[in-house]
Design brief:
Pfam families: Aldedh. InterPro entries: Ald_DH/histidinol_DH (IPR016161), Ald_DH_C (IPR016163), Ald_DH_CS_CYS (IPR016160), Ald_DH_CS_GLU (IPR029510), Ald_DH_N (IPR016162), Aldehyde_DH_dom (IPR015590), LUC3-like (IPR044086). Belongs to the aldehyde dehydrogenase family. There is one protein chain. Helices cover about 40% and strands about 20% of the residues. The chain is built from 16 helices and 20 strands. The chain has helices spanning about 5-15, 40-55, 60-75, 80-90, 100-115, 150-160, 175-185, 200-210, 225-235, 260-270, 290-300, 320-335, 370-375, 390-395, 410-420, 455-460, and strands spanning about 20, 30-35, 120-125, 130-135, 140-145, 165-170, 195, 215-220, 240-245, 250, 280-285, 340-345, 360-365, 380-385, 400, 405-410, 425-430, 445, 450, 460-469. A seven-stranded mixed beta sheet has the order 12-13-14-11-10-16-17, sandwiched between helices. Strands 7-6-5-8-9-19 form a six-stranded mixed beta sheet, sandwiched between helices. Helix 3 (about 60-75) runs antiparallel to helix 5 (about 100-115), helix 4 crosses helix 5 (about 100-115) and helix 5 (about 100-115) runs parallel beside helix 6. The structure holds NADPH dihydro-nicotinamide-adenine-dinucleotide phosphate. NADPH dihydro-nicotinamide-adenine-dinucleotide phosphate binds near residues 201 and 448.
Length: about 475
Amino acid sequence: MDTQTASTLLEQIQSPQGREILDPATGELVGRTPQTSPAELNDAVARAHTAQTTWAAQSHDQRSQTLHAAADAIEAHAEELAVLLSREQGKPLNGPNARFEVGACAAWLRTAASIPVEPEVLLDDETGHAELHYRPLGVVGAIGPWNWPMMISIWQIAPSLRMGNTVVIKPSEYTPLSVLALVHVLNTALPADVLIAVPGDGSLGKALTEHPDIAKIMFTGSVTTGKAIIKTAADTMKRMTMELGGNDAGIVLDDADPKAIAEDLFWGAFINTGQTCAALKRLYVPDSIYDEVCQALTEVAAKMPMGIGLEEHNVLGPLQNAKQREIVARLVDAATDSGARVLIGADPDDAAPGFFYPTTLVADIDPQNPLVTEEQFGPALPIIRYTSLDQAIAWANGLEVGLGSSVWSSDPKRAAEVAARMEAGTTWINKHGAIDPRVPFGGAKQSGFGLEFGLQGLKEVAQPHVISS
Ligand code: NDP
């Protein structure tokens, strides 16, 4: 662990008079974040606007080379970034957590840099010739959450820059230092003002969504904030990508092998201690193998250490903030009050430091219980018993959100048939949340619109332009 160099990076990004950011595991001071004033926001947008013309004039190859250099810079600072991320967000260094997140930043950047974008010939016959080109949009305003602060920032930054836009990014007020550090490292390779971070709270985010010189908003966060942004961005007709909350269902079929799927089920639900948009948040299990699945999951859960992120053996951490811990505690209490059966957890130590909530599995829960129907976004998984597969599919599709979903089965054909009936942006088979920078990702229903990743993700941050002769 490299806490020394992490502090050096911190010194370069923090403001001595800034707002305190505390470690969610210990309550210790991590650093002090600068706050952007409205005048500074205007200045940032103006600088990004000016820089965009020169950046857009470069070829795809030139921009791609610069983005690969930025990925090199991330890799050179990987451990410093991971330590800071762990301290600010709370996630452990190991497991699918801080080091994994920093590695993913470089991988996503390289993929966005490498995918060819060619004009598409739409028509070429005796009636004429038409081509579809993808032009830059201008300045992209990026607004992100606190759960995967670096990786989600890269999801917004990488395609935007690749397509010739510049970016002004507002991190969540809970995790600004992680994003400031990432942007600082990226800027060692990028031209000036192509990427500018503006730390601040939701009011600054609102100002960004209203700004006349922002062409597109890339937003990742809650459904409620997404709806507010759609309203404020309407006046200037901004393009938008909305990656919003979910409440992903997983359906286990009766031919699945409980022991074989237990560990993947666990990480599908508990990756980043459950604070993941496309995590498995409600699991439907047939009566015939219900007890075996519950037992296998409980055995896996019992052996996963939770604690301070910088302690190398931990793979689960605290909730990032007190508000989220309260949501998880309220929903688990609602479940236990209703008579649901706790398999493990649900016994938080409220006197202990940090926002820890124990790994919790809740069985024999009513399908309409709030722990099932509301997004818990934390380490508590409800396991719902079913006898009719049609009923389970109806429950899974019964909410207004539809980000991810999964089907678990030993029979690929059956799994594919059930997957086709799921209402979600992605349905995984025998895994959950396995995203890939080459494969588009986005939400159905109120989980948002627009795609990220892959060629489709690049096109989303471009202005389609038809040339017809
Ligand atoms: P929020 O919606 O509360 O906040 C997200 C961002 O929006 C923050 O930077 C926030 O600023 C900013 N913001 C708040 N109000 C406004 C406003 N009126 N206008 C513009 N920006 C505003 O989400 P959380 O940070 O709590 O993130 C958790 C949620 O994000 C969960 O629902 C989760 O499912 C979802 N999510 C979705 C993902 C996806 O890819 N679909 C991925 C990850 C998370 P500030 O924090 O400073 O107030």
